[in-house]
Amino acid sequence: MPLRVVLADDAYLIREGVAALLELSDEVQLVASVADHDALLRAVDEHDPDVVVTDIRMPPTGTDEGIRAANALRQTHPGVGVVVLSQYVEPRYAVHLLAEGARGRAYLLKERVGDLQTLLHAIREVAGGGSVTDPRVVDALMAARTRGPSPLDRLTDRERQVLGEIASGKNNAAIARSLFLTERAVEKHINSIFAKLGLSQEPDVHRRVQAVLLFLDAAG
User: Fold this and answer.
1) Are 138 and 130 in contact (CB under 8 A)?
2) Torsion angle of alpha carbons 41, 83, 20, 120, nearest 10°?
3) Contacts with 144 (C-beta within 8 Å, 6 or more apart), sequence order
4) What's the pLDDT at 67?
5) Which helix (H) or strand (E) holds 81?
6) Which one-letter DSSP state was computed for residue 2?
7) Alpha carbon distance, N-terminus to C-terminus of the chain
8) Among 7, 30, 1, 25, which Cα is nearest to 117's?
9) What is the pLDDT of residue 100?
10) Mean pLDDT over residues 100-114, rounded?
11) pTM
């Protein structure tokens, strides 16, 4: 059964382009396409989708409607995954999106949307409760780590790489493949990261989320 998707973007050409792209795949069914924050929330109420794909900036204010909608849906429709699209690398929006938890949330740059497989990957991940952060946003956050004292200063270069992979939404097996490590080595690095960041007493899923939030917050 295809994943049911509601799309929201105030730019007509982008909205129609993403809709046309999604219709190329049998994995998803576009059930509504809207242009603003309020229409998005109404469409979710009406269609009960599996996933929302939304721009960040939409009417009425053109600031952070997509983020606010994603956070509101945590309360009203906790099972709905959200893929937030941004035109620019804006780490603070990623922080706000994940501040209440990374589960079922993805942050992608619009330039990636032309790659159907990238978009479908994000949709599948959030539908299953996973999380994805665009690699360019992760790169910006990594570059910002030298801006001042941070808990991340305690990490080795390899541990920073592993944490960056976690922030990209990868599981341990995918991290191992990406960094040419064994899964056991990845587990050791992650445990070291948790200990150095003072997260050793938290449940495992929560520790991953908290570690990513510290990583994102380092960019300010």
Assistant:
1) no
2) -140
3) 91, 218, 219, 220
4) 93
5) strand 81-86
6) P
7) 41
8) 25
9) 75
10) 85
11) 0.69
Beta carbons of 132 and 102 less than 8 angstroms apart: no
Per-residue pLDDT of 180-220, as tens digits, reads: 999 999 999 999 988 888 876 656 666 777 777 777 666 55
Q: SS3 for 21-80, per residue?
A: HHCCCCCEEEEEEECCHHHHHHHHHHHCCCEEEEECCCCCCCCCHHHHHHHHHHHHCCCC
> Which residue do the tokens 């409760």 mark?
129
Q: Long-range contacts: 206-212, Cβ < 8 Å, 24+?
A: 208/102, 208/166, 209/98, 209/101, 209/102, 209/103, 211/163, 211/166, 212/98, 212/102, 212/131, 212/133, 212/163, 212/166, 212/167
* Residue 116 · residue 21 · CB < 8 Å: yes
Structure tokens at 81: 């995954």
Tell me which residue has tokens 């396409």: 33
Amino acid residing at 133 = T
